[in-house]
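pinned: reference chain
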Amino acid sequence: MADDHAVVRRGLRHILETTPDLAIADEAASGTEVMEKLQAGEFEVLLMDVSMPGTDPVDLIKRVKAQHPLVTVLVHSMHAESPVASRMLKAGASGYITKDSEPEQLLAALRKVAAGGRYIGAALAEQLAFGNGTGKPLHELLSDRENQVFFLLASGKTLKAIARELHLSPKTASTYKTRIMQKLNLQSDAELIRYALANQLVK
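pinned: its structure tokens
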């Protein structure tokens, strides 16, 4: 388990000491320590915090999965926002649970990812699927103009071509793209295309 707060690690250890099927094999307080401990021993699950000083969580998850592909990652975070969870899951985490969850939920999450499954809390799952609790898929939150730009981007057109087709300045087209990426929680053009294909928005 990786968390820079000793009191959190102590609390987690106390919770897991009550379970016969789960045990904490080691602790780490930073990303560097995580990689050192994983190199030195054998582990099934990494339970890690998002906010450890000097540690980029996305980079850490990617490094763990690249160097120790059999280790599953469960993120344990104070952040309940779907964009944060989305970034962790895209990096390779098998689950995401917030620190305000009940101990029973944490144990269930650990067991599920240890068994090869995935775990996301119900509230976060709804946000990820429908966006901000509106009951709509994220792409339905786009404005008409944002939708136009989105479909053209997903079709492989450049910003310059989109600006010309929609009679926009290149700067305005770029602004629309930035808004689209933020609303859909996307980090790259490749993710935008994957999102469009996954939601059957383009062929």
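why pinned: The longest strand covers residues 72-77. The radius of gyration is 20 Å.
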